[in-house]
Design brief:
- The structure is a single chain.
- The chain is of the alpha+beta class.
- The protein contains eight helices and seven strands.
- A four-stranded antiparallel β-sheet has the order 4-3-6-7, with no helix packed on it. A three-stranded antiparallel β-sheet has the order 1-2-5, with no helix packed on it.
- The longest helix is centred in the first third of the chain and has 24 residues.
- The termini are far apart.
């Protein structure tokens, strides 16, 4: 009877021992992961690796997402951003928006792939975004401006110089009737717009200036090289629409949409251009707004005959 009572106790102790052993083995060989904002367009990722296993390491896999990694199944191919050699411990991630990002690093060894996710060990738990560019205040530093600064208690000269807007001689410039009508159409959108509308210069992202080795980056580069770079904007519009009809990574899709907006802009299809720029406004906020504003400036200007 005493032996029978000992069996459940022994089984319970064995179960607890196995659980403790499993928990101890469930650890990551990558640790001390850290992500910091490096510049206005990049985030620096650093980590450490168990030196005892370094000779068996084949490569590191880096993952990025807009929410913290908690489970292994979240390490999808769409979240993978780089594969690095085993001697690397840092990675500079280029980002193109101000959203918060989370990172995870795992290692592939000759014994297998260490895909366990341990928050704060090999996966970041705090979101990080790129640095916000500093806005420098513009100050007027001219002799005329300095002359208008008076010491405390000092009166200004009397009389002050004035400009009589009512009495001053006005030079009346003749305007065409079509121009006046066009101005009336634009009045409800931008009352302070200048008479001269400036067309923007073509813009290209840095990663598209050099031919990549292959993959979807190369397909986009070839499309741009044969159309956009040669100012074939109508053809570029069609080619980019074909390119976007196939699923690509978000980074590639966002850049292709922006180039589509540029091709539509330079083809005179300003309404379509605005719709394209709006689709990536959350990714490239300042850049997209600049092109949207210019498109709005040009959208209602008709061809004025001589």
């Amino acid at each position: 009877m005493a032996q029978k009572n000992r069996m459940p106790v022994f089984a319970a102790l064995l179960f607890i021992f196995c659980r403790i052993s499993f928990a101890q083995s469930e650890r990551s060989t990558v640790f001390n992961i850290c992500a910091t904002a490096q510049s206005k367009d990049s985030i620096l990722l650093t980590w450490e690796f168990d030196q005892n296993l370094e000779k068996n390491a084949e490569y590191f896999e880096l993952y990025r997402a807009n929410k913290p990694f908690a489970m292994t199944y979240e390490l999808s191919s769409t979240a993978r951003i780089a594969s690095l050699p085993p001697d690397r411990r840092t990675f500079l991630d280029k980002v193109y928006d101000y959203r918060e990002y989370y990172y995870a690093v795992i290692v592939k060894t000759s014994d297998g792939e260490d895909r366990i996710i341990l928050p704060s060990i090999n996966a970041t738990v705090n979101g990080i975004h790129r640095k916000t560019p500093e806005i420098k205040k513009q100050t007027i530093d001219t002799p005329s401006a300095k002359e208008k600064i008076y010491p405390e208690g000092t009166l200004r000269e009397i009389p002050l110089p004035t400009l009589d807007m009512l009495q001053a001689e006005k030079k009346v410039l003749p305007m065409k009737e079509q121009t006046l009508k066009a101005g009336e159409k634009l009045a409800f959108t931008k009352t302070d717009a200048s008479a001269e509308k400036i067309i923007l210069e073509p813009y290209a992202f840095e990663e598209d200036l050099i031919s990549p080795e292959g993959g979807e980056d190369y397909l986009l580069f070839e499309t741009l090289h044969s159309t956009f770079a040669k100012k074939k904007y109508t053809e570029g519009t069609e080619k980019l629409k074909e390119f976007l009809s196939i699923n690509h990574s978000k980074n590639i899709t966002d850049r292709a949409l922006f180039y589509l907006g540029e091709c539509q802009y330079f083809s005179g299809n300003f309404k379509d251009a605005i719709m394209s720029f709006l689709k990536v406004q959350d990714v490239f906020p300042e850049l997209s707004q600049k092109w949207i504003d210019s498109s709005l400036d040009l959208i209602n200007i008709p061809d004025i005959p001589d």
